[in-house]
Fold this protein.
Amino acid sequence: LTELQALVKLKKSFTNAASLDSWGLGTTPCNVNGRPWIGISCENGLVSILSLEDSGFSGSIDIDALLELKGLRVVSFKNNSFSGAIPDFNRLGALKAIFLSENQFSGEIPSDYFANMDSLKKVWFGGNNFSGPIPESLANLNNLTELHLENNQFSGSIPLLEQPTLESLDLSNNLLEGEIPASLNKFNERSFQGNAGLCGENIGTSCNDVADAVPPTGSGDQGNVSGSSSSKTAAGLMAVAVVLLCVMIGAIHVMRQRQKKFNLLGKEDFDDAVEVRSSGASKKDMGSIRKGNGSSRRGSHKGSGGDLVLVNEESGTFGLTDLMKAGAEVLGNGTLGSSYKAMMSNGMTVVVKRIKDMNKLGKEGFEAEVRRLGRLRHQNVLTLLAYHYRKDEKLLINKYVAKGSLLYLLHGDRGLNHAELNWPVRLKIVQGIARGLGYLHTELASANLPHGNLKSSNVLLGPDFEPLLVDYGFSPLVNNAQAVQALLAYKSPEATQTHETSPKCDVYCLGIIILEILTGKFPSQYLNHGKGGIDIVDWVRAAISEGRGAELFDPEIINSRNSLGEMEKLLRIGATCTESDPDQRPEITEAIQWIEDVHVEGVGGQEARTVQVPRQGYAEAAAPESTHLLNVQDGYAGRRLNSIGERSARRTSDSFAFDIS
Ligand SMILES: Nc1ncnc2c1ncn2[C@@H]1O[C@H](COP(=O)(O)OP(=O)(O)OP(=O)(O)O)[C@@H](O)[C@H]1O
């Protein structure tokens, strides 16, 4: 079968597939006037994603037809009315993600169902009627990142899921019992709630207590005496359980109904998505445009979907309706949620970030914080455009920045933009980041973590490589329990170890970015589980102490030999900003000044390799409060430096110069 024939065959297996009428002979699935058929995405001319969500489909899913789609990696049938046993998706061994949430699938999933699905990363089966044990073969999926089985009737114990890759887990509202495996201790109780029989550290129920509570099985006098009263108690408990169960089922039903009513773009986070068009998503509950400067109730739309609130109209106005109709593309799935690029018919392109775990504040508090973000104006800060608030759905909308992120340009892209990342451009980027961060530290001074999420994927690049900071200022909004995982600034050593945070965490992140830009290496600090990447701080520290500092620079900028002095200076600034003791890091204002001073106009070229550094002891005398021990032994071993000292040194005769080449 051709892909076209296969898709038409698939469509025939559905009931109520009128929304797929445009799928048909005489067209090409991956290209109808430059766009793919509704509900599919393509890569290299082959169907890669099937996103048939929110469409009221029932009937069966023709797996034989899907087998003909050789490039298929993601299938999503979320929020339809499919029922019966789970289809044989396991015959599609190359799948990376299966989304079946909110259907009526039922029955047991065979224990070995996932045995031949090594590529599988995301399994979303929540909101069905699956029963029986959670399949053991899930434990063998080495790449599993997301497992969502909530709101089913899975029973028995949780398999030993020990994959370090697992980042997102929801087993809530099932009938699971027994001890939660220690490997899942990193997940909080929300992942397990609604399973009366579970016990474990992370849900605050000691398994010993549970064991103690179980009455001895032996018989005897005592057992007989207490027999009738315990059977009465058991009957009472049973009655309470039945009532609770009814209440739970009712609540789940209400939740599902509400979820069905609003599903903004009707898609989930896919890894490799190129373009996904919604296949007839319900558009009943689109909101109206509302300005963000008034009360949240003023002019609000009555529908349960709620409004889109504009907090900054500089780029134009739009509403939920425009977003719902927009062609969309998945950009990625970050620690805080997933992001979609939405191209609206009015010509505006925006990024919609669907945020999870932002329930620290109530609606009023949330709106006040977000409106504050909408008032920020700085050439290195991307100002939020709009938001949408519901208790269980929060969207933040930003302008789309076409050149993409520094992360992508440095480590992903090998095209023209990457080629332009020469030394002057990289220095300009660092300076812009520092300026934007300085602005945030002034404007959001009351926050413990003014940025709180500084990393290269949150630095976007304008047309002239002017950096723009994004995803900042969330620390007042993110749930405490999630904050450590969600906010990367918490990855500074003191935050990781003691959960202590301060603006110095942002300084640490600035240091990481500096080292990343200089070395061109991807820092392992960005990864949740420290797998992959390079521990850039230790690596730089070790190399500097062995006198190999210059060897660290990205070979692609090393040909700017005349700028070696500037690079060395910046390397030391990066190393100081990433000191493990926050007191040894500079204040943000100091760091900015150091960075501004890296390139001294008119002292370029060979002369720039001669750096003015204060004599040992000078710094302490000049500004004892603001000294920073530079833990480097590169010839200036243990020398105390500080920015003020270094800058002053240039202007005084109390300094000596040495060649760092
Ligand atoms: N306004 C934007 N314009 C262009 N690309 C963007 C924009 N916002 C985000 N991106 C890119 O989309 C991708 C996904 O972003 P997202 O913010 O969801 O994840 P993240 O930055 O990796 O993690 P986090 O949730 O911690 O911020 C990233 O590569 C990011 O650089």
Observations:
- Confidence is low (pLDDT under 50) at residues 210-233, 250-305, 602-661.
